From TrEMBL:
The chain crosses the membrane at residues 18-38, 50-67, 73-90, 97-119, 139-159, 171-201, 221-244. Keywords: Membrane, Transmembrane, Transmembrane helix. This is Putative membrane-anchored protein. The lineage of its organism: Bacteria, Bacillati, Actinomycetota, Actinomycetes, Mycobacteriales. It comes from Gordonia humi. It comes from the Bacteria. The keyword Transmembrane helix applies. InterPro entries: DUF347 (IPR007136).
Length: 258
């Protein structure tokens, strides 16, 4: 009797398109403003907010690991919740434990290199186009969590160290991402290196956007507040995810053909 073989799962992450980057930036902005909304506006406090969001993240990842292929709402739910948790990790280290931002930035940078090193040693690739095993997916989500924590620490360090203001910080991080894109297309920077470098930088970019929109006008912001900023950006995420669910514009070719 022939032993049935387990059907391999399809790539579990979306194609990197303009929609990917737009939703990623929206999610990073929500990571900043939603954490502030729960922590300060609702008065949950940093500890309770961390417990609740960590539980939601575990639930979202359980669903993500349970599906066999890329499902837009499942994937982006995990990204959005991990964005909030990554922010809270850095906030807890800084605000509760008093760890300097220079230290957290260095530690998370080293941790990210370590994750990539172990990932590559085990799988011989860091490409997001081959996330079709549970182990690769575990490395992928661990790397994403560290990038959010690193991006939060590095963004806060730059903002506090140089006191650039929200608009200037936003333009600075956008310029760095643009330079990465130019280096990839013109100079030939490796696609995997360019992707992860840009991925890290979208976190402080999204945080700068969130701070600019939510902060009071007296502090240099637009004055929307954390509540409305979170609502508007969450609505944007939901709308784009619904669009991608219908059109499948971000499904990898192998998954479309399956």
């Amino acid at each position: 009797m022939t032993t049935p073989t387990r059907r391999p799962q399809l790539n579990k992450v979306p194609e990197v398109t303009v929609y990917f980057w737009i939703i990623k930036i929206l999610a990073t902005t929500v990571g900043e403003t939603c954490a502030d909304y729960l922590n300060m506006t609702l008065g949950w406090g940093l500890t309770n907010t961390t417990y609740v969001m960590a539980a939601l993240l575990l639930a979202a990842l359980a669903i993500q690991f349970g599906v066999r292929r890329y499902v837009p709402w499942v994937y982006w739910l995990a990204v959005t919740t991990i964005s909030v948790v990554g922010t809270l990790i850095t906030d807890n280290l800084t605000d509760h434990l008093g760890v300097p931002l220079q230290t957290t930035t260095t530690v998370f940078a080293v941790a990210l290199v370590a994750v990539f090193g172990v990932w590559f040693a085990c799988e011989r690739t860091l490409s997001i186009h081959t996330i079709h095993t549970a182990r690769r997916e575990a490395f992928y989500w661990l790397a994403i969590l560290v990038t959010f924590a690193l991006g939060t620490a590095a963004g806060d360090l730059i903002a506090e160290q140089f006191a650039l203001g929200y608009r200037t910080s936003m333009l600075l991080f956008a310029a760095v991402i643009a330079l990465i894109a130019v280096a990839h297309r013109v100079v030939g920077l490796d696609a995997v290196v360019a992707f992860w470098a840009a991925y890290v930088m979208t976190r402080p970019l999204g945080a700068s956007i969130g701070d600019l929109l939510s902060a009071p006008r007296a502090d240099g912001g637009v004055g929307l507040g954390a509540t409305w900023t979170s609502v508007v950006f969450l609505a944007g995420i939901i709308g784009l995810v619904a669009y991608l669910t219908v059109t499948r514009k971000d499904v990898t070719p192998s998954a479309v053909a399956a």
